[in-house]
Amino acid sequence: MVDDKLDFIELRELALDSARVARACGCGIDRYTEWTRIPVDFPQAQMRTAGTLSEDPYSEPTFAEYHPQGTSYWSAGAPIAPRYYPYNRCTVQQCSVCGRACLTYVEAGGYYVEPRIRALDPALLVDAPEPD
Fold first, then answer.
1. End-to-end CA separation in angstroms for the chain
2. Residue 73 to residues 9, 68, 86, 91, 94: CA-CA distances in angstroms?
3. Pairing verdict, β 36-37 and 47-52
4. Distance between CA 54 and CA 131 in Å, rounded?
5. Which pTM value belongs to this model?
6. What is each CA distance from 93 to 14, 89, 90, 132, in whole angstroms?
7. What's the number of CA atoms in the CB half-sphere (13 Å) around residue 10?
8. CB 5 within 8 A of CB 50
9. Beta strands in the chain (DSSP E)
10. How distant, in Å, are the alpha carbons of 47, 90, 102, 113 from that of 116?
11. Which of 5, 69, 85, 118 is 20 to 30 Å from 104 by CA-CA measure?
């Protein structure tokens, strides 16, 4: 397992490689265009950790979101801005069968935890400045 922090260039390269995959795969990563609960039948065994977007495991990252075009957390077109929530809590995973990449994190609500997934789409990556 890799716990390395990915910089924006590495993240973009992974996203571009993922976008080039044309074949069907049981991982279904290409279907998760917005944040989605990870299904119980998701093939986690064929995933490998490519890195993390988390800056420092000992500090609380911001909950500020980045939506300059009026999108929301749930929007398929929402930007993927690594310094903003929830991306600043994500692990980047890559399917060992097809090579597609996705973002995952665990949403921790008041009474539940829910693992979530979103495809890593290079068209949505934004190297947005640090939040205020």
1. 33
2. 23, 12, 8, 17, 22
3. unpaired
4. 15
5. 0.93
6. 10, 13, 9, 29
7. 10
8. no
9. 36-37, 47-52, 91-95, 101-108, 113-119
10. 14, 10, 10, 10
11. 69
**pLDDT recorded at residue 3:** 57
Interatomic CA distance for residues 19 and 101, integer angstroms: 9
**In the prediction, which pLDDT does 87 show?**
97
103 is written with which tokens? 């973002």
**Residue numbers in the chain where pLDDT is lower than 70:** 1-3
Residues 6+ away with beta carbon under 8 Å from 117: 29, 32, 35, 36, 37, 38, 42, 102, 103, 104
| Residue spans per domain, the chain | 8-124
Q: What is the dihedral of CA 69, 8, 108, 63, to 10 degrees?
A: -50
Report which secondary-structure segment, H or E, holds 10. helix 8-19
Looking up tokens 């930007």, which residue turns up? 79
Q: How far is C-alpha 18 from the geometric centre of its chain's CA atoms? A: 12
Helix (H/G/I), strand (E/B), else coil: 57: coil
